[in-house]
């Protein structure tokens, strides 16, 4: 029963991490990190991402232009690019390591200690990946709030607002952190179970029974 529950927790954790990793990759390339609504021209909505700026027209058309230079970007967008790449790389590495450490995978059944270490390392990588994904999203959101309430900018100037990609990035980060926590909890529960007195007594009894069966004298043939 405990083994089945642990396997279910591992599957739930890795599925959450997989969802978080896919959403993190999606956040990296979405152009909706910031939205700009023009009151003078309500038929157009401007959006900005890490790679390009787009204008969405009411007729359904969308035109995008990539940024010409990385150095010309604001600091938060430059560092956000780097952090999102790091988050995606760590998430992929965590998926590979923890995937080989799953109990339902028959590979390496004789090396349980190694599988536990892979699960633990994968969970830690998911934590770091989730935090690394949340940092740039929160930074861009903080700068957007500061610019929105900046009193030095005239009221007639349009203000940037939160884009959909920010919410996707937050959700991705929390999925990675929660999924990594589930993976690490299964490792801790396994260690606690193996060190419990009932488990140790059962193991000793098993060993004694095997040793006694091996020491039994063979019956003499008449």
UniProtKB/TrEMBL annotation:
Q: Summarize the protein's role.
A: Claudins function as major constituents of the tight junction complexes that regulate the permeability of epithelia.
Protein's UniProt keywords contain Zinc: no
PROSITE patterns in UniProt = CLAUDIN, PROKAR_LIPOPROTEIN
- PANTHER family found in the cross-reference section: CLAUDIN
Q: Which gene encodes it?
A: LOC107123668
Its signal peptide is 1-24
Gene3D superfamilies, per database record? 1.20.140.150
Protein's cellular compartments: Cell junction, Tight junction; Cell membrane
Membrane topology term reads: Multi-pass membrane protein
Q: Which residues form a coiled coil?
A: none
Predominant location of this chain?
other
**Which named protein is this?**
Claudin
Q: Does the keyword Membrane apply?
A: yes
Q: Which residues cross the membrane?
A: 79-97, 118-141, 167-187
